[in-house]
Each structure stands twice: as structure tokens, then as C-alpha cells.
Amino acid sequence: MQDNICVSIICNTYNHEKYIAHALESFLMQKTDFSFEILVHDDASTDSTPDIIKTYAEKYPDIIKPILQTENQFSKGINVTQVFQYSRAKGKYIAFCEGDDYWIDSNKLQFQVDWLEQHPQDIGCVHKYIVVDEDENIQNIKTFGYYEKEERYTLKDFEEKELPSQLASLVCRNIFRNQGESYPESFNAVDIQGDIKIYLYLLAHGSIYRLPQTYSAYRFVRKVGGNSWSSRNIGARKGYQNWMAYQELEKVFRKEYGIEVSLKKRRAAMAAEVVIDCLYHRKGASWSHAWEVITKQDDCLSMVAKIAINKINRKIKGKID
């Protein structure tokens, strides 16, 4: 049995039979001078994902520690990471990687832990990443708009809309169970992308440093109905929902930490998505939502214009190239 676990790797899976072995191998290849554990949670996959996980767990029983659900927890509104993963993470640090993503450098964990050991002011450490499709082809796309500067990232940077990096790049201090610092239950009630809440939570306790190296791969599958997070959300028009969620997140953060955080730019971007959604996808689009965000959100229309200009410029550049 492993003692003195330094890093707990949290890996959540659902119908990732094509990808999960690659993810697990990328964890197992890590070269470290410390012990780590791999906490896999399968949310009642209907494909062969559980069988693949079992095979690896039998081969590496001291490292891979699976939870194989027989009923899907996400569909019940349960935050899998909060309920099943944080509570069993023994590590001083936590690393994240979904079952369809993977790491591409065997020194990733060692480099990031070394950084955090030497820089106590940083709550976490991230790095650059590549984007691949279902066939491992590198995609030259910008998936979410992550922070590009190779420097220290603070709460003020979070207000500007960009996130520090994709979640598979994050290693952070394990404060999720510490008394007085644990992940707030009130965050779970806010219906918005999970890494947004995780990064905001961490930034309440310190800065995040962004390393210049590229150590992980994020899988972005364009095929609708696929089993990656991106494919399941293609065509999902969530601008209005996110616009409302950001307002709630501001209130929750203020109540939990007594710190004012302004997500105005993020809210304006989401409001613009609502309007653009109506312009491009009139069938099923909600004009009442569009009118609400136009009248209630400052800078909504200017953001719409900015997005439209960027689209035109990209098309012109594409023709020139």
C-alpha cells in the first residue's frame, strides 16, 4: 500500500471506452519522486468503460482506486467530484483530468509539484495544452478563451472573462476538505460550468501560476452525440442560463468570502451570446431572453458588435490566406 500520498488525481468518466485507457496510461507514466493515487469515478457508463477501469485497477491496485456506479449520479443532480472524490483524496495536492482528456509529458506532475513547493503564495499551477479530436488529430481551434499570459493569475484576471487554463492542466493544493476552507456547498447550486467554480474557489485562497510548457491534451469532439464533454454540449444554447448564473455566482462569492468580485465582462459576453443565438438560430430561440439581456445588461450590444466584427475579420483573413 502507498503511504504519504502527495498527489490525488481526480478522473471522472462516462462512456469513455475509446479514451479512458489513454488517460490512465498518461497518469501511470508520470515520473515522480513522490507517491500519487488515481481516483477514478465512473458514472454508470453503458459501454465498456467500467471493464477497462477494472482491468487497470486489478493491475495497479495500490494506485488506481475506482468507484463504479450502477446508477448515474449526474442525472440525479449530484456533484460527483464534490460528493465522491474530494472526500477520499489523501494527497497534499490534487490534479484533475477527465476520462477523455490526457497528459502528454511524463514530468508534468513533478514540475508542478516542485513549483508549488517553492512558491507557497500560489494555490495552484496550470500550463498550456493542445486540443485534439476523437482521432488524436491536433485541432487549431480556441475552445473556450483561456488566459494566454505566462505569469501569475489572480482574482482580478478572473473578472476579465478568461480562465487560467483547461482543467486537465491544473494541480492545486488540497484545501477542499480543510476546515474553514472547504469547497462551499452554495457553489454547487450555481448551474454553470464546473471549472469556472473551481477556479473562482481557488482564487479566494491564493494566486494561480501559469507555466509556459504544454503538458496536457483536451479532447474537443465536434460530432454531436459523442461522449466527450464538448460533443455533448454542441448546439446547446446556454447563454441566458450562464448570464443568470454569473449574477448568482457574484452573490454567492460575496456571501462566502466577503470579497466583491465583478463578473460584468463575463455577464456581457453571455448576454451577447443570447442575442447572437436569436440572430443565427431563430427557430427555438427566445426573443424574450434577448430583450431582457439587452435592457438589463450594460455593454451587451457593444459586445455583440465586437463579436460580429471579429467574425467578419476571421472570414476576410481566411479568404486572404
Overview of this structure, please?
The protein has 321 residues and is an alpha/beta fold. It folds into 2 domains: 5-233, Spore Coat Polysaccharide Biosynthesis Protein SpsA, Chain A (Alpha-Beta Complex); 240-320, no CATH class. The protein is built from 12 helices and 9 strands. It has helices at residues 20-28, 49-59, 80-85, 108-118, 155-158, 185-188, 194-203, 229-233, 239-257, 264-280, 287-296, 300-320; strands at 5-13, 35-42, 64-68, 93-96, 102-103, 122-132, 152-153, 171-173, 207-219. Strands 1, 2, 3, 4, 5, 6, 7, 8 and 9 form a 9-stranded mixed β-sheet that branches. Strand 1 (5-13), helix 1 and strand 2 form a beta-alpha-beta unit. The radius of gyration is 20 Å and the shape is globular. It holds the Pfam family Glycos_transf_2.
Structural descriptors:
Glycosyltransferase 2-like domain-containing protein, globular, alpha/beta, single chain, 12 helices, Spore Coat Polysaccharide Biosynthesis Protein SpsA, Chain A, 2 domains, 321 residues, nine-stranded mixed β-sheet, 9 strands
